[in-house]
């Protein structure tokens, strides 16, 4: 264990290097350590890695932001309290979600949030960060978002919605029409089920009633238009 501790401390110290190459190499190595060795996670956290990772989430470098997000996801399995108690971490995750350097960085950031949201006491704090909810909803409205990112965003929204006071913000930030669109149009495996699960959570929110009503009216109006077009086409074909 002492050998692991010394190795972790040496690697974490490189995260403060002025050399991008040195920082990137250390991030890649630490990511593998936190992925493959559960015992190393608390050791790396105790060595002071989390504040460095928080800063690196603001990096414009895709490889650095990706590895930092993935490493936070790995750490969230074992040291959730160390993460949530780090000053500025949630704001940094919000930045990574709103300004992802890559789709992989976004997915890992959303997955890390979902892991943190497994703790009841953290849901209120995370839900108070409206920028986080906004980024998750926005990603779902973008049809170019990769399936993995969509699933991780949906799961994070589900975790946020498990805390009833958070549901109003989820609705106010436009989740309802986006979720209904996914349920109606998305054929990718697992996405309809995850979107339905979020809808079920926010359905109990008073603010969702109007949003649900508007969307249902839109659905019926769209269906009526489609039926009218089909009827007109049929009538024209019979006239010919």
UniProtKB/TrEMBL annotation:
One Pfam family recorded for the sequence: ARM_PUB
Family matches, as InterPro entries: ARM-like (IPR011989), ARM-type_fold (IPR016024), ARM_PUB (IPR058678), Armadillo (IPR000225)
Domain of life of the organism encoding this protein: Eukaryota
Domain U-box: 11-206
Entry keyword Transferase: no
Keyword Ribonucleoprotein: no
Keywords for the protein's UniProt record, in alphabetical order: Repeat, Ubl conjugation pathway
UniProt-listed SUPFAM superfamilies: ARM repeat (SSF48371)
UniProt protein name: U-box domain-containing protein
Source species of the chain: Kalanchoe fedtschenkoi
């Amino acid at each position: 264990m002492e050998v692991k501790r010394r190795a972790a401390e040496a690697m974490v110290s490189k995260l403060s290097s002025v050399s991008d190459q040195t920082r990137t190499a250390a991030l890649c190595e630490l990511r593998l350590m936190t992925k493959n060795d559960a015992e190393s996670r608390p050791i790396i956290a105790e060595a002071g890695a989390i504040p460095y990772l928080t800063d690196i989430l603001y990096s414009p470098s895709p490889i650095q932001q990706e590895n930092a997000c993935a490493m936070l996801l790995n750490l969230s399995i074992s040291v959730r309290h160390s993460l949530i108690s780090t000053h500025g971490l949630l704001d940094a995750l919000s930045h990574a979600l709103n300004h992802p350097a890559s789709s992989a960085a976004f997915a890992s950031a959303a997955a890390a949030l979902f892991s943190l949201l497994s703790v009841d006491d953290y849901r209120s704090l995370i839900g108070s960060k409206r920028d986080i909810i906004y980024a998750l909803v926005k990603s779902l409205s973008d049809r170019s978002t990769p399936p993995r990112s969509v699933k991780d965003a949906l799961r994070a929204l589900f975790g946020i919605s498990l805390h009833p006071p958070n549901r109003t913000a989820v609705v106010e930030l436009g989740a309802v029409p986006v979720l209904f669109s996914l349920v109606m149009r998305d054929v990718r495996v697992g996405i309809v089920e995850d979107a339905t699960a979020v809808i079920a959570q926010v359905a109990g929110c008073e603010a969702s009633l109007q949003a649900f009503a508007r969307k249902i009216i839109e659905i019926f109006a769209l269906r009526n238009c489609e039926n009218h077009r089909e009827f007109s086409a049929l009538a024209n074909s019979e006239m010919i």
